[in-house]
């Protein structure tokens, strides 16, 4: 069972598996668009078509994957097995995607579209099943907060790993070797993801049989999917605004700074911010203070975006500070969003938990499909670094406003009856 104080090793294995999945996720977020236009030579319109179609097909498949997750009682066991199978097929498809740059140009669009769709289909199984473990492999609200922190910390490490290769990739592409470098990196990422997903599957299948069916007793009537609408809205906001910042980072770095090292440092700073805040969020903001976590994180994310927007181009350190603050706030919002969603999803009947996570993931993919269309419009050849950072800053600021507005509906109350007490029949957490 995940998130227990006396079983941190199992939660750590989950974190390692999520790190492997994050390599694929952030590779797609940070590098796919840049790879298709700058390395494979596709036009922005072709890039947008390839990515948007892949996201939309993946969203449809997410919903189907969610329907099969909890048809029988062994939700945790089934999800663990499916996420390992999804990792294997995703890894193979990812290598196919990055091989696009090695093909003759007339074949590239068709190959990129085919392998991209296959990758998104496999990743849907990988993503939905692993995400669902936050609800069906945990037994209390505090456990889900621990798992959420582990998850976002692992995501930050994955983002940091991807960010670390952006500078070398830009330098390699300027020498004409970007395609080969990406294939090597894809093989390494696939090996890590498959290995960690298989380890998680073995660990959860080897759990005490009493832990295999985690069904927390509900106090009061169970919820319907409509009750989760504030979290669904949060997912749309988070995948649209901050995602624009991440997708445009490589383009901004390549156009704004002659040094690939400076550009790489900018992207690393944002990823490092995500990692740095996780222990702090867990210590300072217990589940009973999640509204405050949403608010503080949103303000930090917006502040970082504003600093990034106003920074002078002759002071790269200001951009690095802005990117780090953006990442710090974004990591806090991600932790609060996933912990809150898992809390509410745990109150659903077992047969609705899979569809809930599937809808959550599908909304992310649909929003990302819209995002790549905005990216395609933003990266036209005449776009200056000032133009790009305007897009990059606007998204996080608007998202932060929306997250603050939604927080009171999405998070447990800070006093009185908390989600933990409603869901588990436990005593309310202490407030501070």
Can you summarize this structure?
The protein is 79% helix and 0% strand. By secondary structure, the protein is mostly helical. It has a single domain (5-423), classed as Growth Hormone, Chain: A.
Q: Which fold name corresponds to the CATH topology?
A: Growth Hormone, Chain: A
Helix content: over 70%
How much of the residues is beta strand, in percent?
under 5%
Number of domains: 1
| Main sheet record | none
CATH top level class name: Mainly Alpha
Total beta strands: 0
Topology order in helix (H) and strand (E) letters: HHHHHHHHHHHHHH
**What is the CATH homologous superfamily assignment?**
MFS general substrate transporter like domains
Number of helices: 14
The CATH architecture comes to Up-down Bundle
Mean pLDDT: 82
Query: Which spans of ≥5 residues are poorly predicted at pLDDT below 50?
Result: 212-220, 414-432
Separation of the first and last Cα atoms: 29 Å
What is the SS-derived class?
mainly alpha
Shape: globular
